[in-house]
Write a structure and sequence with these properties.
single chain; mainly alpha; 2 strands
């Protein structure tokens, strides 16, 4: 289905992919990796990002002969309409899960750090209203806002890394392979969907000006997000080690709270919290926009913006389900990353096999048709 919502270039597209994928490094999501990687969580992060990048490269090649089309349109043309709709629904469920979990992590973190007396439901409504406004403005607004916030994201990561260098202890990375190289690589493959947002964002390829800009942007955004997340995880390991890094609820804010150069340079967590809030709201808005777009693709709805409010309401209801903070992390790890990764990656491989089967069947029918025509 052909839906238009503006055209963005390579820089904006890269920033959008990076913001959707890399913003998680400022929330507690990394706990889903540290419990498996131990001292080698940095290696697990690289393994997960590498597996995800390899699968995205396969998707890009699958889409290359149909420039200007999103992944779902390509699957519809190559593998069948109903398979495309089913895969769109799977992606929609995945992005809905990602969205309400990011919303709950945002609210829990803000409640504990800045607004302990404010009810969770009130904070969710306020967060969703801002995210709804940003999502309604469209993909061009989201991509340009992402580009504006990108220097703040890298500035926050880089400044924490520099200001905390006096606390680094490289002995905490030993043993280098943590529980074992094979175990780390296996867990990296199981957690590839930790960096899986670009996989769903291939459906937005029709909004990018050219195929070349789409391919460059999605690869660069995925790589930069993996590198940035790995850097923050490594910082955490260098300072707290294992099992200390597994028990930190808010790794990024904990690092910023530990910054101390002298009595004039301390308690900077307020500054970093402000940067994190701006980026977190943008991330939830991207999740809301993408989940709504995928829903419209699954059910052939051309005007998907009116669906943003019902989708935001669904985010709100689902985000109220976890009873406590670590339950949200367990949901993200078990249901979204591991089970969701198997279903989403397996769904694409099924579409790819169906495409190969249909192409082979068509090739076998050509000589017979030619002979009959003669």
């Amino acid at each position: 289905m052909n839906v238009r919502d503006g055209h963005i270039g390579a820089r904006e597209w890269t920033a959008l992919v990076l913001m959707a994928t890399g913003a998680k490094i400022l929330n507690p999501s990394s706990v889903a990796l540290t419990q498996y990687g131990k001292e080698a969580t940095w290696l697990l992060s690289i393994a997960a990002g590498s597996v995800n990048l390899a699968l995205i490269s396969i998707v890009v090649r699958f889409m290359r002969d149909r420039p200007g089309s999103g992944l779902l349109d390509v699957i519809s043309a190559k593998s069948g309409k109903w398979l495309a709709k089913g895969f769109a629904l799977v992606l929609c469920i995945g992005m809905t899960g990602n969205g309400f979990i990011n919303l709950r992590l945002l609210v829990d973190q803000a409640k504990i750090v800045t607004l302990p007396q404010t009810p969770v439901s009130v904070m969710m409504v306020c967060s969703l209203l801002l995210a709804l406004y940003l999502a309604y403005k469209g993909i061009e607004t989201l991509s340009r806002l992402s580009r504006v916030l990108l220097p703040w994201l890298f500035g926050a990561i880089g400044s924490v890394a520099v200001l905390m260098m006096n606390r680094y202890n490289f002995h905490l990375l030993a043993p280098w392979f943590g529980p074992g190289l094979l175990d780390v690589v296996w867990e990296g493959a199981r957690h590839a969907l930790y960096y899986g947002e670009p996989f769903a964002m291939t459906a937005l390829a029709l909004f990018v000006r050219t195929q070349d800009e789409f391919e460059r942007g999605i690869r660069r955004g995925t790589i930069f997000a993996t590198v940035a997340a790995t850097l923050v995880i490594t910082e955490l390991q260098l300072i707290l080690g294992s099992p200390g890094s597994e028990r930190v609820a808010f790794p990024y804010l904990e690092l910023s709270r530990m910054i101390y150069l002298n009595r004039f340079v301390q308690h900077l967590e307020g500054v970093y919290s402000a940067i994190w809030l701006l980026i977190a709201f943008t991330q939830v808005a991207i999740d809301l926009y993408l989940a709504t777009f995928l829903f419209s693709q699954a059910f052939s709805v051309k005007r998907f913006r009116p669906l943003l409010l019902p989708m935001a309401s669904l985010f709100f209801m689902l985000a109220l389900m976890p009873n406590y903070f670590y339950e949200t992390i367990v949901w993200k790890d078990m249901y979204l990353i591991q089970i969701g990764g198997a279903v989403i990656y397996g769904g694409f491989l099924l579409a790819w096999l169906a495409s190969s089967f249909r192409r082979r069947k068509a090739d076998e029918g050509v000589p017979g048709g030619a002979a009959a025509g003669d």
